[in-house]
Amino acid sequence: MIARLMPLTVGYDWEMAVLKRTGENVAERDVEALSDEVRRRLPWCDPGTDLELVEVRVGPVPAFRELLERSRRVEDALRAAIGRKGWALLRSGARPFEREPVGAHIHVGTVHDWTAAVRIQNGMARYVAPLAALLANSPVYRRRDSEYKSYRVASFAEHCSRPQEIVAPGFSQPSWGGDVCVTLAWGSTVELRVGDGVSSTRLMCEVVALVAGLMHHVAERESERPVTEEEYRTVLVNRWRAAKHGLQAVFTWEGDEVEAPAVLTAMIGVAQDGMSRLGISADDLTVVRAMVEKRQTQADFQLAVFAKERGDAHRLTRAMANIQRDPGAFETYLATAGTLPAVEPGDIAGELVAGVEIDTPYPVLCWKTPLAPAQLDALLEKAVREGRLSMKRSRLGVRLYSRADLV
Predict the structure, then answer these.
(1) What's the distance, Cα to Cα, between the start and end of the chain in Å?
(2) Residue 111 contacts residue 215 (beta carbons within 8 Å)
């Protein structure tokens, strides 16, 4: 059965932080008042709040031009309301000192059959990592930096965007929190949740169109494609590489090691038919194509500012909020930014072993790795055989692992 999206419509839930002049987040009641003001000005818009974030919602709409026009009108209204109070937007995948991540969730519809929607969810799993790389925008998170371009994806968005599962359509149940979610129990869309918060309205709309095109392609051509256990492991390792290196990542793709720009270029190609139904072509993805060509992400923009602010996260927060008073700040950076090199794939097993201390409980390791538990077990068993780890059990039978060089 072909899992068709009829008609093809798009929308998003785009979270943004609102900051005082001091760089602190405004209170929840302030965000609620701000949302109400925008809604009064644009009655068709449905902004809301989420953990002291303003959440902009536009859609569903059937055309890219309408999506872009609505998004710009909402941005203008939001910035006008914020400007009158002397506040500023921080459009990022994270606030450097807050636990809660900041996301941009994309909804694609319309689908009315549950099993058809689950097939699309399964089929989108292989595309999650390249999209996460493209949207990487949280390189400083909870006072950490330098290891990941997207700490939000690496931390599973504090379990609001968990690694994608492959589920049997006939046995699946409504659930929430995966990288791709079926929302048929509450709406009529398939939702991509893996994306970090976005810095630019134009970029947001371009990525929405790309995701819609990919979901259309999956629905028409890949929804019956089975996913093997080895392919699923590849999906999860690619996700880790995307979080770590952004568009500098090298992915395992169709059996080969392929640089992220080549993977995304191919994805744009297969998404073309769906995008054309929204009135947009590959040539119209001006920001996305520039990012892919230069391997530059929004995280790289932040890291450039971070370096100028001497690695001070407080200064970074204030600087990015001020820079983003210009709606086209990211595109301005991108126009003059250089091309970054590809980065060789890292060793996920080595990184996991390095994170083990003395008597580290197995459940802690489960939360730290993107691998499925069965894959994690195989990796840990190998490390024990090789003498890199030792294992014992607690009084309750929980496995406790210790790194050999620490014992």
Answers:
(1) 56
(2) no
Residue range 348-406, CATH number: 1.10.10.10
The pLDDT assigned to 89 comes to 94
pLDDT in tens, 188-228: 999 999 999 999 999 999 999 999 999 999 999 998 888 89
Strands (E), 244-335: 250-253, 256-259
Confidence of residue 38 (pLDDT cuts 50, 70, 90): very high
CA distance 262 to 130: 10
H-helix segments, 168-249: 201-217, 229-245
Q: Domain limits of the chain?
A: 9-336, 348-406
d(C-alpha 183, C-alpha 114), whole Å: 9
CA 119 from chain centre, in angstroms, equals: 21
Q: What is the pLDDT of residues 336-367, one digit of tens each?
A: 999 999 999 988 999 899 999 999 999 999 98
Neighbours of 366 (CB within 10 A): 13
Return d(Cα 317, Cα 310) in angstroms, integer.
13
Compute the average pLDDT of residues 18-39: 91
Please state, in angstroms and rounded to a whole number, the distance separating the CA atoms of residues 60 and 83. 28
Residue 54's pLDDT is what? Answer: 95
CATH number at 9-336: 3.30.590.20
Measured between alpha carbons, how far is residue 75 from residues 36, 253, 301, 369 in Å?
14, 37, 21, 37
CA dihedral (227, 228, 234, 236) positive or negative? positive
CA distances from residue 119 to 182, 184, 377 in whole angstroms, order as listed: 10, 13, 28
Tokens standing for residue 118: 């689950």
